[in-house]
Amino acid sequence: MNLGMKIIREILVDVDKCTGCRACEMACSAFHSNPKFSSINPAKARIRVVSNELTDEYVPIFAGNHTKSGCDGRHVYTVDGKTYSECSFCRASCPTRDYFIEPDSRFPLKCDMCESTPALKQPWCVEVCGEHALVYSEREVPREQAAQEPLGQLEIGLQTLMKQHGMEAVIARLKQIVKEK
């Protein structure tokens, strides 16, 4: 059942355009410093540019959800002739690496699209990306009704009784049982 539309906000990454300048990391850490723009510490950024300077490969990755355990996935992928480890594309903050863990508090970090009041036109990392490797996008998608939990035995039994005897008869009998107790 469609409950209207919702807006999906996302940052699209073109790895072929990224030069590894890390301006996105600096802008993100400055925006999230307290007070805003008071310091730059890329270790506090919600974006990391995973790089291999020897092969000229740079992959901007945004902080996603936190996971309490590291994964076993250590596969290697080749995309357009470039080789990447599976960990390079992972957005999770996890115990197997320090990405997306706040260095002072050790709390996990997650990209919030630079939410602020008033709202920004686009996140700061996109704003400062001179190579346009990061592109902000908004799109509308149908909002779906939340999945209903499966019925328990009591609900199934009541539905069966109502189908067989009608709601009024079931309610009348329940009232009678309550009075008898």
Automatic annotation (TrEMBL):
Query: Mind telling me which InterPro entries this protein's record contains?
Result: 4Fe4S_Fe-S-bd, ET_IronSulfur_Cluster-Binding
Which controlled-vocabulary keywords does the entry list?
A: 4Fe-4S, Iron, Iron-sulfur, Metal-binding
Q: Which residues form the 4Fe-4S ferredoxin-type domain?
A: 9-36
A single Pfam family, by name? Fer4_2
Q: Which GO terms describe its molecular function?
A: 4 iron, 4 sulfur cluster binding; metal ion binding
Q: In its UniProt entry, what is this protein called?
A: (4Fe-4S)-binding protein
Q: Which organism is it from?
A: Georgfuchsia toluolica
